[in-house]
Automatic annotation (TrEMBL), chain A:
Name this protein carries in UniProt: Origin recognition complex subunit 5
Main function: Component of the origin recognition complex (ORC) that binds origins of replication. DNA-binding is ATP-dependent. The specific DNA sequences that define origins of replication have not been identified yet. ORC is required to assemble the pre-replication complex necessary to initiate DNA replication.
Classification via Pfam families: ORC5_C, ORC5_lid
Origin recognition complex subunit 5 C-terminal domain ranges (all copies): 294-423
Any GO molecular function: ATP binding
Any GO BP: DNA replication initiation
Subcellular localization: Nucleus
Gene Ontology CC: nuclear origin of replication recognition complex
Family, similarity comment: Belongs to the ORC5 family.
Species whose genome carries this gene: Acanthochromis polyacanthus
UniProt entry keywords in alphabetical sequence: ATP-binding, DNA replication, Nucleotide-binding, Nucleus
Domain of life: Eukaryota
Automatic annotation (TrEMBL), chain B:
Cell compartment(s), UniProt: Nucleus
Molecular functions per Gene Ontology: DNA replication origin binding
Predominant localisation class: nucleus
Region entry Disordered, spans: 194-213
Top-level taxon: Eukaryota
Subunit structure, interactors included: Component of ORC, a complex composed of at least 6 subunits: ORC1, ORC2, ORC3, ORC4, ORC5 and ORC6. ORC is regulated in a cell-cycle dependent manner. It is sequentially assembled at the exit from anaphase of mitosis and disassembled as cells enter S phase.
Assigned keywords, A-Z: DNA replication, DNA-binding, Nucleus, Phosphoprotein
This protein's name: Origin recognition complex subunit 3
Length: 427, 721
């Protein structure tokens, strides 16, 4: 395995360490190292792979580098500062003017470079490079030609989970080298996960546990981080019978019988992250009342909003007028309305329609008090309604209802309102 | 004011220094415009004392209610930070996750502040000095969120130590100097901070359970209103934080108003997998309110009371509008203030001793006020003629009587609440809750009128008469428990009587076995007859007879006893649960102006604007404006006329027609001869006045400009005359 990582330029022992840190990435690491050996390349790793972060652990081995996360750099200034800081220390970083431009950066870089010339290649590693799309238009092309601009032995490495094609600047640029990190296979996942074994159990025992775990979860989830989380979460349950002395470590079948129903249950909550092991059972209790308690009028406002969102405005007369005459569904069914409104999603409605429906839905007479209106805005902050148009109250604001049918049914049941009778789709 | 300036312009007149000095105290605000000024100072003091007591009581109550959830949160933070430091295998595996507590608090957002306040105080005291909380409205963008977090965290460290204070000032100065604030700055700050405190003398900070915990205290960031945050900002922030988690022991607390599923809705897998979330659910607000009512309203401790209508208003605001306990207490405060402000006799609304003293100090005017009270008038009418004369004319005699009445009122309250609770324990277990599930509903019915005349009460009594023995005994036992601690002779004796009844119930067990055969006999004999051959007529007759006998059948000893017990309860209810209006001098303690409370707490701005526009007399009180229903005098303000005219239009209003109509109406007001040439003509002044009133209407939100049709405006309200 490590044979692949042999490279003339580097210390044998260090390479060995890298290889240990990067299981199942030998091919890519080797390729990268060989590319790094040649001095004047810029590499863009457009990877859909899972463990990007581990990869840059290989760099601190012996290389002079600056690791920057593009999420963190809300402004280019921050990015420049980071880079200068890690290459030349804080003196250089403080030379940057307020809101620096790219040329400021290049100028200072050149100045500093001449003072402390590079003994070896400098690397700039940028995580989440796809975010560079949204920053200044000249930034990405400039980064790709940084070596020419600053005249230094510098390499920019962009890390991204999106293919390079998706964020290539449309003005054209210097094409980087692409290096693809493929997804881990099941076997590789097994190998990686087995590495962090519990110190008080044998490696075989843990790896058999991982085997069972992958058997259950692999079809649903291939995220290494999530799998690791699940492994940590369920391991105590797995070794319970061993600790109690009922089963021997080697008796995998019995262990499997013991853990399987438990894992099946855990399957429903993959990715939810909604509990730590303590709350495992409590979670069920809580999920029983995930419904939201709302004040009485808020419930009706929400119901009215739902009706306004999912019924065509023309049908309001039929639902909310006492003497609506004989309008049958077939009579006013337009062609395009044959598709279910629920499939099309909520439609925006103006405030007056909401209130008109609200007043006809609520049994008692409600004064149009300030708190009725403030309840509408609280529903918006609670994200049960969304405001579609701009904030101007004078300009007849429009809303959309953002709750599901199940939710609204549960709400209307608590106020004894049969919402299905009022929905055009269920006529 | 006049100036010596020749030119036109705006001039600023600063208030003279003398006026500035006179800042009004709370008391003078209270006394200003107060009814019955002579006793206003005493009333102010009474009011303030009472409010202070209510406030401190509610705070204690709130702490008590939140204790459980706050304690578990504190445990969680402690556990997380200790697990980080000497982690076992499982916590090492999950070291890259940010521990997060999702605090589900319910939709009553106004109440959350208090919870977060006490939470951050507690955290500050016992877990970590680094606690910062952020709200959504101040963090529109990632930059702002970052800035707020840094500010809060670095400021909170200002401690008893002076050196540290300087230190923080320096860092914050540096922060302001450097253009960008980032988490790495916080990280550096944290490292210097922890180094400093670990090298410092131990015990300098507050004592904590474990010393090593202090060396790496977690950095807690509280997101008060999770739903309102911009998801993008939050995601980025979490991503950044996760990069620093190895160096900086971060911890999040999300305040969630709706349901935990919002976390999944706002954060994608890639972000939520960076967190390790634990859920905490707080007490529901209805339970919270029930406790508050139990402790503040249903107790004779506070002399101030609400009558049925005010109570109803406050409750309906809570249930229908906001679910906010804080607003409920605010409403209570408003009622309290209004009562002491507007009712001169509220001097008597205080502790018994004080009240008795205050009675003796009542002035003649106050006594006259007492004589005017409806409840007192009713009382006088019942007295004999000599006594009536005495009460009306003799002030000293009246004072004496008042003392008696105050005592009577106190006794009434002392007995009312225990009996109310007893009745509630008995009826709350009944099917379909004829008298309400919550004690506040029962309280309301009792306040409104004689509860025993209520149909629901009668049906409840009927249901109680069918109660099984063990249930009845259990609820009677609970009643005894309620009555026992009450310090009142009446209640003590009632408790004793109930206990006697209970003892009798328990004796029954032994008696019943002896009685049993004879009872059986009486039932079985007609059935035996039935088995003989009979014709249809006979059968009917026997069946009817059987029915009769069953109805008038001798009751079993248990049934007799049960009826006895229930009659006893009924007599208790009748003697103690009469509504407060039946008590003489109840006006002293009961606040009854529900309209005021409603106007203040549940304002209807739109109705008042419409009232002002359609009948300006209501506010301006000018005789010229007085008109019949539905019409507006032509001398009314311009905006009223324009408003009235616009009501007659449809959704789109032609501006020119509107102007013409307006000019006609206004011309009539000017007193021009209808036949003259200029009548109804639009001149410049009228035009300008019209434009102004139209723009005022636009400002008030009645119309808006539209592009659908030229020279038209759109109406934003519907309906008209």
């Amino acid at each position: 395995m490590t044979a692949l990582l042999q490279h003339p330029g580097y210390d044998e022992e260090k390479l060995q360490r890298v290889a240990e840190q990067l299981p199942c990435r030998e091919v890519q690491a080797g390729l990268l190292l060989s590319l790094m050996g040649e001095v004047d390349v810029k590499v863009c790793v457009a990877s859909t792979g899972i463990k990007l972060t581990v990869f840059h652990h290989s760099l601190p081995l012996q290389l002079h580098h600056a690791a920057v996360s593009c999420v963190e750099c809300v402004s280019v200034a921050l990015l420049f500062e980071r880079v200068l800081l890690s290459f030349f220390g804080c003196d250089a970083a403080s030379l940057l003017p307020r809101s620096p431009s790219l040329s400021d950066f290049v100028r200072i870089y050149r100045q500093q470079r001449s003072q402390s010339p590079a003994k070896q290649t400098r690397y700039i590693v940028m995580e989440k490079a796809e975010l560079l799309r949204d920053s200044d238009a000249n930034l990405l092309p400039a980064l790709l030609r940084l070596q020419e601009l600053v005249g230094d032995n510098v390499t920019v490495i962009l890390l991204s989970e999106i293919a390079w094609d998706k964020f290539r600047p449309n003005t054209g640029c210097f094409e980087p080298l692409l290096l693809h990190f493929p997804d881990y296979s099941k076997g590789e996942l097994q190998q990686i996960l087995s590495q962090d074994r519990h110190p008080s159990y044998s490696a075989e025992f843990y790896s058999s546990y991982i085997h069972i775990l992958l058997g259950v979860f692999y079809s649903a989830c291939r995220d290494l981080r999530e799998l690791r989380h699940l492994a940590a979460l369920n391991f105590s349950k797995f070794c319970e019978p061993v600790e109690e002395g009922k089963v021997k470590e080697t008796d995998t079948h019995k262990l499997w019988r013991n853990i399987e129903p438990h894992l099946k249950k855990a399957m429903q909550t993959v990715y939810l992250r909604e509990f730590s092991p303590v709350l495992w059972t409590e979670y069920q209790r809580l999920s029983a009342h995930t419904h939201v308690e709302l004040p009485f009028y808020s419930k009706f406002l929400l119901i009215a909003a739902y009706l306004a969102s999912y019924n065509p405005a023309r049908t309001d007369k039929r639902f909310f007028l006492k003497h609506h005459g004989k309008i049958r569904k077939t009579n006013f069914l337009k062609k395009n309305e044959k598709t279910s409104n629920h499939l099309l999603g909520p439609k925006p409605f103006p405030l007056d329609r909401l209130l008109a429906i609200f007043y006809s839905v609520v049994d008692s007479r409600v004064a149009p008090t300030a708190s009725i209106f403030s309840q509408i805005s609280s529903l918006v902050t609670l994200q049960l309604l969304t405001q579609v148009s701009h904030d101007d109250q004078l300009d007849a604001p429009k809303y959309k209802c953002a709750v599901s049918l199940d939710f609204i049914c549960a709400v209307s049941r608590t106020v004894n309102f049969d919402i299905v009778k009022y929905l055009y789709d269920f006529l | 004011m006049s100036t010596s300036s020749v030119s036109k312009g705006c001039f600023v007149f600063k208030p003279s220094a003398k006026k500035k000095k006179m800042s009004l105290s709370l008391e003078s605000y209270f006394i200003d415009g107060c009814e019955g000024a002579e006793s206003s100072e005493t009333r102010f003091k009474l009011c303030q004392n009472l409010w202070d007591k209510i406030k401190s009581d509610t705070e204690v109550l709130q702490d008590e209610l939140n204790r459980k959830i706050l304690d578990s949160l504190l445990d969680f933070t402690r556990k997380c930070s200790s697990a980080r430091q000497h982690g076992d295998w499982a916590s090492q595996m999950r070291a890259s996750e940010i521990p997060t507590a999702a605090l589900v608090l319910g939709v009553n957002v106004p109440d959350h502040d208090m919870t977060f306040q006490s939470l951050s105080e507690l955290l500050h005291q016992s877990v970590t000095p680094h606690v910062g909380s952020v709200e959504a409205k101040e963090c529109g963008a990632l930059k702002h969120l970052m800035k707020r977090v840094l500010e809060r965290l670095m400021d909170t460290v200002v401690d008893d130590d002076e050196e540290e204070e300087e230190e923080t000032e320096q860092t914050s100065a540096q922060l302001h100097q450097s253009v960008h604030c980032s988490l790495s700055a916080l990280c550096d700050w944290y490292i210097t901070k922890t180094k400093k405190s670990s090298s410092g003398t131990p015990g300098k900070k507050r004592s904590s359970p474990a010393k090593d915990e202090q060396q790496q205290p977690p950095v807690v960031i509280i997101f008060k209103d999770f739903e309102a945050f911009n998801p993008r900002v939050l995601q980025d922030f979490i991503l950044i934080c996760s990069r620093y988690i190895e160096r900086l022991p971060l911890m999040f607390i999300f305040g969630i108003a709706t349901s935990p599923s919002t976390i999944q809705r706002m954060l994608p897998h890639s972000v939520s997998s960076l967190l390790c979330i634990e859920l905490f659910q707080s007490l529901s607000c209805t339970q919270h309110l029930a406790t508050v009512i139990d402790q503040l309203i249903l107790t004779p401790r506070f002399p101030f009371k609400l009558n049925a209508k005010v109570m109803q208003v406050l409750l309906s605001i809570f249930l229908y509008h906001d679910f906010s306990v804080r607003n409920f207490i605010k409403g209570l405060q408003l009622a309290l203030l209004e009562h002491f402000h507007s009712q001169p006799l509220s001097v008597l609304c205080c502790k018994k001793k004080e009240a008795l003293l205050n009675v003796m100090q009542l002035s003649h005017r106050d006594l006259e006020r007492i004589r005017q009270l409806p409840s007192f008038k009713r009382y006088v009418e019942k007295q004999e003629s000599q006594e009536q004369v005495n009460l009306i004319t003799d002030d000293d005699h009246l004072k004496e009587t008042c003392r008696k009445m105050i005592k009577g009122l106190r006794k009434y309250h002392k007995n009312y609440y225990p009996i109310l609770r007893c009745l509630h324990t008995l009826t709350s277990a009944l099917p379909r809750y004829p008298l309400g599930k919550q004690i506040r509903e029962l309280h309301l019915t009792c306040l409104e009128k004689n509860v025993w005349e209520n149909e629901d009460y009668q049906s409840a009594m009927k249901l109680l008469k069918m109660l099984a023995k063990d249930e009845l005994i259990a609820s009677l036992c609970r009643c005894v428990e309620i009555l026992k601690p009450v310090k009142s002779k009446k209640m003590k004796s009632t408790a004793v009587q109930l206990e006697e009844l209970l003892a009798k119930f328990k004796q029954l067990d032994t008696v019943v076995t002896e009685m049993a055969p004879s009872v059986e006999d009486s039932i079985t004999s007609p059935i035996k007859n039935l088995q003989k051959k009979t014709d249809l007529f006979q059968l009917q007759k026997t069946l009817l007879e059987m029915n009769e006998t069953r109805r008038s059948k001798k009751l079993s000893p248990f049934e007799i006893l049960r009826n006895e017990a229930l009659e006893f309860i009924d007599s208790l209810v009748k003697s103690h649960l009469s509504p407060p209006e039946s008590q003489t001098l109840h006006e002293v303690c009961y606040y009854s102006s529900s309209a005021t409370v409603r106007r203040h707490l549940n304002a209807t701005p739109r109705t008042s604007i419409q009232a002002a526009l359609s009948s300006p007399y209501y506010y301006l009180q000018n005789e010229n404006l007085k008109t019949e229903d539905g019409t507006v005098s032509n001398t009314a303000p311009d905006i009223c006329i324009a408003y009235k005219l616009h009501l007659e239009c449809g959704r789109l209003i032609n501006l020119y027609d509107w102007l013409e109509a307006y000019a006609t109406v206004v011309s009539a007001a000017d007193g021009n001869d209808p036949d003259s040439d200029g009548y109804g003509k639009v001149d410049e002044v009228k035009h300008a006045r019209f434009i102004r009133s139209v723009s005022e209407l636009e400002f008030l939100g009645f119309i808006k400009s539209t592009k659908q049709k030229t020279d038209h405006v759109a109406r934003l309200t519907w309906g008209g005359c």
